[in-house]
Design goal:
Glutaredoxin; mainly alpha; 9 helices; 2 strands; 184 residues; Glutathione S-transferase Yfyf (Class Pi), Chain A, domain 2; binds glutathione; globular
Length: 184
Amino acid sequence: MALQYAGIEVEHREISLRDKPQSLLLVSPKGTVPVLCIDGLVLEQSLDIMNWALGRSDPDGWAEVNESIAQNWIQENDGPFKLLLDQYKYPHRYPDLNSEEVLSTATELMLKPLETALESSQYLLGSKLTLVDVAIFPFIRQFSMVDSKRFEELPFPSIQKWLNQLIESELFYSVMHQHPTWID
Ligand SMILES: N[C@@H](CCC(=O)N[C@@H](CS)C(=O)NCC(=O)O)C(=O)O
């Protein structure tokens, strides 16, 4: 989304995580996606890619944020919430965990704070969309999709509204194409 928003054209190579192409591992041995190779640069973290794109062009000021508040949200998301998302999404990998307990931990850690922030403003940091919303909402979307009926029952109307708005945005729609799998 950040690349599209910044008007940066890239050749998008969708890869199979079960059969990673050598060309990916050559530029980025850690083998995670996304990876951006551009102008002799290899960026291997989503956030680095976002920041790089916004450094090039940021017409609506996505990067105009209070750094420490932005970092707090993103760290909470990328650290503990990402683990809970994995536990919730792949219960067979965590046979000792109970889904309702995972949901309850995620609620305390992330969903309640998100709801509180979004009760008083349209976006996480205020009335303007920022990179924090764009960095976090795909994870909340994935979480909500594990059991969408259960998620809809939760007392988080502001999260639902925020999520729907982003999912229904032209920008999201414009990047959510299926791409053929890249084979070297
Ligand atoms: N912190 C990294 C995380 C990247 C990451 O873990 N990506 C997952 C897919 S969403 C992956 O590539 N996993 C490697 C694998 O499953 O082998 C980032 O934000 O780019």
